[in-house]
Design a protein that fits this description.
about 425 residues, alpha/beta, Rossmann fold, 2 domains, seven-stranded parallel beta sheet, EryCIII-like_C, transferase
Length: about 425
């Protein structure tokens, strides 16, 4: 069968899809990956076939999108308190998301036009779309393909959409504003494709939802989920010799990921301060930093090794703990290898939710600095608290034991190869 993956130009979102794409390719299927031009080199380096869609100029990934930051746009969707999720709140959140976030921040008009046009010409049997790339389900509907949504973390969109659909049905006719239906209808109309109200759920949450996130981190939603084992993909790389040498002291990895420094205007707090705080412990600290981050700290402690990049899948088996921002790729690597986490969360999507879930399982701790920021987020990091947390995670065996239990649960989850067989049945079924 022909399988089209659709993802906007974010490496972390694409890397999340690579193991499944290769499982389908290895099963004999014709696989293409459509994204904006900025991501094409990363796609081709995986050995997969890239389909450039959209204009280079339509790939803004900075802190501002039409005057509204990614953090502000996401904050509404990640709200979970039942008393806040009224019809007015949910309606307002999706009105903003459809008009700004979904329309502009994940590809814009040119990506949608190109993707739908390619899908009509190539006629895929299945479209697998990143859960923020809503051009994907539009292209599937236009071309008649089956389609599956692929999550990259906690399903906040699915959760809020379920509230939206329920609350919309409860409204009197005069209050049934439907920005999601209007947005989807407008996108389909550009390709002379009819929209029916029943399509909204399918196009927002997929005919199936592929979920590589451990089930204890997800909401109990009544959606057609297909669980898939998280398989790390860290990009093309080689493994330095020192990684294979057993450390004499507990090895700790500190990373704030690549997304913030490459696409979101920099880290939320000072890496230099974090290094200085935890390097006081009797550990070997491996920090992934670029030249700008290193410049913040002219003198590095003797027990700190700085590298621009090292594949976490190869480094973490030798680590006793990892300190990071809560990004799904970093967290997934850590959970696969049973490494306890300390999360100093970003506030872009699900970082806080991940930290809370890990604390609940006794597999990590979260340094929540939101209430400490008197002069902005950078000044709000509790460095003493970070050092104390790391000492505790290293000293108390329960963190390692509970992390090992999560690793066992992940290993028992169906693999990408297993899911490839299910997707064959989806593509062959009644759409």
């Amino acid at each position: 069968m022909r399988v089209l993956f659709a993802v906007y130009a974010a490496k972390t979102h694409f890397y999340n899809m690579v193991p499944l794409a290769w499982a389908l390719r290895a099963a004999g299927h014709d696989v293409r990956v459509a994204s904006e031009p900025a991501l094409v080199p990363a796609i081709t380096r995986t050995g997969l076939t890239a389909v450039p869609v959209g204009d280079e100029a339509d790939t803004p990934r900075d802190e501002a999108t039409s005057g509204t930051s990614w953090r502000d746009l996401n904050a509404g969707v990640t709200e979970t308190r039942p008393e806040v999720l009224t019809w007015d709140y949910v309606l307002g959140t999706f009105t903003i998301a459809c008009s700004m976030h979904y329309e502009h921040a994940t590809g814009g008009r040119s990506m949608l036009d190109d993707l739908a046009g390619f899908a009509r010409d190539w006629r895929p049997d299945l479209v697998v779309w990143d859960a923020l790339t809503f051009a994907g389900p539009v292209a599937a509907q236009v071309s008649g393909a089956a389609q599956a949504r692929m999550l990259f973390g906690i399903d906040y969109i699915g959760r809020m959409y379920c509230d939206y659909a329920r609350l919309l049905a409860e409204q009197p006719p005069e209050r049934r504003d439907d920005p999601i239906g209007d947005w989807l209808a407008g996108r389909l109309a550009r390709f002379d494709t009819a929209y029916e109200p029943g399509l909204a759920t399918e196009m927002m949450t997929g005919q199936w939802t592929i979920d590589p996130t451990p089930s204890f981190m997800q909401f109990p939603l009544d959606l057609p989920f297909r669980r898939m084992r998280y398989v790390p993909y860290n990009g093309p790389s080689d493994v330095p010799e020192w990684v294979r040498v057993r450390p004499e002291k507990p090895r700790v990895c500190l990373t704030l990921g690549m997304t913030a420094r490459e696409s979101l205007g920099g880290d939320l707090f000072s890496v230099a301060d974090m290094l200085e705080a935890v390097a006081e412990l009797d550990i070997e600290l491996v920090a992934t930093l670029n030249s700008e981050q290193i410049a913040e700290m002219p003198v590095l402690p003797a027990n700190v090794r700085v590298v621009d990049f090292v594949p976490l899948n190869d480094l973490l088996p030798s680590c006793s703990a990892i300190i990071h921002h809560g990004g799904f790729g970093t967290l997934g690597n850590a959970m696969v290898h049973g490494v306890p986490n300390i999360i100093a969360p970003g506030h872009y999507w699900d970082e806080v939710g991940f930290g809370q879930a890990l604390e609940g399982r006794g597999a990590g701790l979260m340094l929540d600095y939101r209430q400490k920021a008197g002069e902005g987020l950078r000044s709000g990091l509790d460095l003493d608290g970070l050092r104390t947390m790391l000492a505790r995670v290293l000293d108390e065996p329960s963190f390692r034991a509970n992390s090992a239990l999560i690793r066992e649960e992940i290993e028992a989850t169906p693999s990408p190869r297993d899911l490839a067989r299910d997707l064959e049945r989806l593509a062959a079924g009644d759409r």
